[in-house]
Design goal:
Elements: H1 18-29, H2 46-63, E1 69-74, H3 77-89, E2 97-101, H4 104-116, E3 119-124, E4 148-151, E5 153-154, E6 159-160, E7 172-175, E8 192-196, E9 207-212, H5 229-234, H6 244-261, H7 264-283, E10 290-291, E11 302-306, H8 310-322, E12 337-340, H9 347-364
Parallel strand pairs: 2-3, 2-4, 4-7, 7-8
Antiparallel strand pairs: 1-9, 5-6, 8-9, 10-11, 11-12
This protein binds pyridoxal-5'-phosphate.
Residues 12, 77-79, 105, 151, 155, 175, 177-178, 196, 199 line the site of pyridoxal-5'-phosphate.
C-alpha cells in the first residue's frame, strides 16, 4: 500500500505530515485533554488559550525571534495582508513604499498597495517573463520608503530569494506564504512577516503574522477593528471567533517540526536534498525537461518546468496522475509542470517522482 499523503505535489493546499493527520483524525472525534471534538471547542476555553500560547512560543523558537515580535493568527489569507500592510503603513504617507514585482503573487500585492498610497516598483521581472530574480545592484530603491515589500518565494514561477533583501534602515515586510518554516530566514531582520498556513504549515483558514512592536508605533490607527493589528495583539488573536481547528493543526505541525524533524535547519537540509534530486533530473535530461527559473534563483519549494510540447505535458500529467502523483499541473496562469515539495512532502515521495520522470523521459525522448 502506498503511504497516504506522501504523493501530494500540489502548489496549495499542500501535503501535511502523516503523523499530524493521524492526530487530527483523533481530534475530530475528541481532543483527549478536553473531551470534545476539536470542531466544537470554545475559542474562549482555557485549553484554546494554551494552544495559542504554545504555538506563539513554538514559532518564536523555530525562527529564533524574541518577544518584541507579536505572533498573530489572522484570517483572510495572504490576500488580506496585501491590503492590511499598506492600510497600516502606507495610507496617508507621501513617500513611496518599495515593492518588488517578481511574479504572479507580488503582481497581486502591488495593486492593493497602490490603493492605499504611493508605490515604487523597485524592480520588475515582467520584461524577462519572471524567470529570474534581481541582483542587489538592480534594485532601484526610493528615498525614505516607509517599508520594502517582497515575496520570498514566488510559488507560481518557482523563484526563491536565497538572501535577505533591502536595507537594514528600511523596515522589511515579507510574504513568506510558500516557504515559511522551510529554512532558517534571519527573521529578526524583518519588521513584518506573513504567511498563510495552507502551503507549508497547515490547512487554509489561518495566516501567521509576525510583527515587530516598534513597527506599529506610528502606524495608522484609524482602521476597522478587524483590520487593525493592534486589535488582534490586544485580544491575543481572539478578537472574534478564530479558526480554532486550523490553528490547532498548525500547532501540531509546529510540534512535528520541533520534535520529529529537529527544527528549521534540519528541515532545510531535507528540503535541499529533495529539490536537488529534481533539479538534477532536469539538468541531466538532455533538454527534455526544461527548468523555468534561473539556476541561481531556483526555489526549494516549487520546481517548475516544461516538456518539449504542450501535448507531451498533458501526457506527462495524465501518466503521473495514474501513477499516483497528484497536483503536478502548473499554475493556471503559466501552465507547464510544477512539483511543489513543501515541508511535509517526504524525500521518499520525491525519489518516486524522480524515478517516474526518468522512466517517462526514456519512453518519450526523441
Ligand atoms: C498562494 C499565495 C498567496 C495567496 O494566498 P491566499 O491565502 O489565497 O490569499 C499569496 N502569496 C503567496 C506567496 C502565495 O503562494
Amino acid at each position: 500500500m502506498k503511504p497516504r499523503n506522501s504523493l501530494n505535489f500540489s502548489g496549495g493546499p499542500g501535503a501535511l505530515p502523516e503523523s499530524v493527520l493521524r492526530q487530527v483524525q483523533k481530534a475530530i472525534l475528541e481532543v483527549p485533554e478536553v473531551g470534545l471534538s476539536i470542531l466544537g471547542i470554545s475559542h474562549r476555553s482555557d485549553w484554546f488559550a494554551s494552544v495559542i500560547t504554545e504555538l506563539e512560543n513554538n514559532i518564536r523558537t523555530l525562527l529564533g525571534v524574541s518577544d518584541n515580535y507579536h505572533v498573530l493568527f489572522l484570517q483572510g489569507g495572504a490576500t488580506q495582508q496585501f491590503s492590511m500592510v499598506p492600510m497600516t503603513l502606507l495610507r496617508g504617507k507621501t513617500h513611496a513604499a518599495d515593492y518588488l514585482h517578481t511574479g504572479y503573487w507580488s503582481g497581486k500585492a502591488i495593486p492593493e498597495a497602490k490603493r492605499e498610497g504611493p508605490v515604487n516598483v523597485a524592480w520588475s521581472g515582467a520584461d524577462s517573463g519572471f524567470n529570474r530574480l534581481p541582483g542587489d545592484d538592480e534594485l532601484a530603491f526610493s528615498a525614505d520608503a516607509p517599508y520594502i515589500h517582497y515575496i520570498s518565494n514566488e510559488t507560481v514561477e518557482g523563484l526563491q530569494f536565497h538572501r535577505v533583501l533591502g536595507r537594514d534602515d528600511v523596515p522589511r515586510v515579507c510574504d513568506m506564504s510558500s516557504d515559511f518554516l522551510s529554512r532558517p530566514c534571519e527573521a529578526e531582520r524583518y519588521s513584518l512577516i506573513y504567511a498563510h498556513a495552507q502551503k507549508n504549515i497547515g490547512p487554509a483558514g489561518v495566516t501567521v503574522v509576525l510583527v515587530r512592536d516598534e513597527l506599529l508605533n506610528d502606524a495608522n490607527a484609524d482602521l476597522p477593528g478587524f483590520l487593525n493589528y493592534r486589535s488582534h495583539i490586544q485580544a491575543h488573536s481572539n478578537f472574534n471567533t478564530p479558526p480554532v481547528f486550523a490553528i490547532y493543526v498548525v500547532l501540531l505541525v509546529s510540534r512535528w517540526l520541533m520534535n520529529e524533524i529537529g527544527g528549521v535547519a534540519s528541515m532545510a537540509e531535507i528540503n535541499h536534498s529533495k529539490a536537488e534530486l529534481l533539479y538534477r533530473m532536469l539538468d541531466n535530461s538532455d533538454g527534455f525537461y526544461r527548468g523555468r527559473a534561473a539556476v541561481r534563483d531556483r526555489s526549494l519549494m516549487n520546481v517548475v518546468f516544461n516538456l518539449p510540447s504542450p501535448e507531451m505535458e498533458r501526457r506527462f500529467l495524465s501518466d503521473a496522475l495514474e501513477a499516483g502523483f497528484s497536483g503536478l499541473a502548473g499554475h493556471r496562469a503559466i501552465g507547464g509542470i510544477r512539483a511543489s515539495i513543501y515541508n511535509a512532502l517526504t524525500l521518499s515521495a520525491v525519489e518516486q517522482l524522480a524515478g517516474f520522470m526518468e522512466d517517462f523521459r526514456r519512453a518519450h525522448k526523441a
